């Protein structure tokens, strides 16, 4: 009906946060405003991406390498700066930590007010950028613990249970922002005409079991035998299908909506896997648990892992609870034997 249609179009992200928290406390207002700044970052990045074939700054490499030793793309740098700019002068966040920065960026002014830290991967899946395939941004919000903000950022080395919000922006055929502040998982679609993210899916639940397994089988000979055993199992059993885009956010979003499991196991070259705990695995683990699914290293829940450094990697097995448990049964059978 008419009222419903208008109401839906007005359910923006900041309004939804306040509805979720059923409160107008300072904390609720802060979180609402913080999510709004993340939406702004998403809109700025989406705008650049939709024109990436047309504007010089959006494609190709800068010539630098980042803290991971990976070649930095112009879009990585632009997106990283967009998040910093979106939060400077916001009075909400006092520190930002990202894959693109060796050490966290401290926002000089307003710090006493901004009691949150934003951890983010500004563009995840940047290898897809030059071929116009989906990429994403991933973010997590944590309270700043204690008074001093020392360079070591040791207060960030806490398990994922300490996150108070997490989400991602998927730059696909439509631009979607998916988030949770601990009251379920909700998706917003960017209406380019309004320039607003409008609520499109509320209380998303991941199915307990799903048909999709998402893993880079090109690494097959680098895996532990247990992961090879799992892959042989799904090859031999009906009802499984493989989907892998090379960009975590899109692969995760499919699992969230259709069920199944995404895995990036340890390999011979990278025993801890490739994905970063604090701003890739932990935010997605927060979301999947809020949606009724699970996230594991194979041995331990992702949200229990105690990081010992900001850019720490972990193996990631994430998705429907039954699919994750199946992978764990192979991994744990292996460790039981060894
Ligand atoms: P591989 C992209 O570089 C990324 O960080 C994730 O987005 C993606 O899931 C993974 O790496 C892909 O890695 O080794 O399969 O190419």
Percentage of helical residues? 25-40%
Mean pLDDT over the full residue set: 91
Q: What is the percentage of strand-forming residues?
A: 15-25%
Strand count, sense and barrel status of the largest sheet are:
8 strands, mixed
The chain-level structural class is alpha+beta
**Tertiary shape:** globular
**Roughly how many Å apart are the termini?**
62 Å
- Helix-strand pattern: HHHEEHEEEEEEEEEHEHEHEEH
Strand arrangement across the biggest beta sheet:
4-3-5-6-7-8-9-10
Unreliable stretches, pLDDT < 50, 5 or more residues?
none
What hetero molecules are in the model? 6-O-phosphono-alpha-D-fructofuranose
Radius of gyration of CA atoms, rounded to a whole number: 20 Å
Number of helices: 8
Tally the beta strands.
15
How do the helices and strands line up, and which of them pair or pack?
Layout: H1 2-9, H2 13-21, H3 26-50, E1 61-65, E2 71-73, H4 74-87, E3 93-98, E4 105-106, E5 116-124, E6 135-143, E7 163-171, E8 175-180, E9 186-191, E10 196-201, E11 212-214, H5 225-236, E12 241-242, H6 248-258, E13 260-264, H7 277-290, E14 294-296, E15 316-319, H8 321-337
Helix pairs in contact: 2-3, 3-4, 5-8
The chain binds 6-O-phosphono-alpha-D-fructofuranose.
